[in-house]
Each structure stands twice: as structure tokens, then as C-alpha cells.
Amino acid sequence: MYLEVASPHGIITPRTENFVVKNVNFYNFNWNEAAALGSCSHCFHPAATDEGGRTVKFSGLYFHSSVTRKILYQTPKSAIYADLDGTLTGLGPNTWATSYSKRHMWDACTYLEEEYGGVICDSSVEVRTIIFNKYTPSGILNG
Questions:
Q1: What is the Cα–Cα distance from 4 to 107, expressed in whole angstroms?
Q2: pLDDT tier at 44 (50, 70, 90 boundaries)?
């Protein structure tokens, strides 16, 4: 009964930079909001004190046809998934998956909400986090 109402994740990636997921097989993620991958462990609500945007590296993944949702981004929905060998995105080595935002929509990126929960991008782009520390109103960004 509990399984029928659950929405599990196979792996929920951590709030750490450059975590590696390697040689993992996924089966039977095809009900409710179940997904093979979830982002940002311990960030399950909008009041989470983490901005996300961590890069996680993937290789050697296998998704059985029973996996209908590969990624479900959790709050704050800003993880960056680097696909080192093409087994996550299917676009070849050095490709990317990240959550949807207009700023992520380049010619090299495709929005695939149901399967990837966001966008996947080919190797012609790099997805990176930009963090500004100690920004002040008199800073250069104010132009």
C-alpha cells in the first residue's frame, strides 16, 4: 500500500560539489512522481538554506525501459548534472542536464520535462554555477 502512494528516488544527490555517480542501473521508476535521480538532499522545502547549483558527475548509467522519469529536481531546483559518457542524456560525452529556466534555453539545449525534469544540453555548451560573494550596491554589476 505505501509503495502505491510513494514517489521514490533511486539516488538523491548531495549538497556537495563534484559528487560522482558511476555504474548504476535503474529499474521500475514508472509511477507517481518516482524518478531515478533527485537533486539536493535535505532541500525538500522552499525554506531550505541551500541555493543548490552543485555539479554532480555521472557515467556508466543504465535506465531500463521501465524508467519513465530519469530526473526530478527538488527545491531549489538548480542542480547541474554533468554526463561524462552520454549514459544520462543520450547526447554523447560531456553533455549536461539541469532544471528548466529561460536562461538555460540555448540552441544546444532541449526542454524535456517528463523524462528529464528540465533541459539537456549537448557538448557545445558548459553549464556552470556563478556565485557572487560580498556584492555591494556600488559593485560593477550596477553598471
A1: 39
A2: low
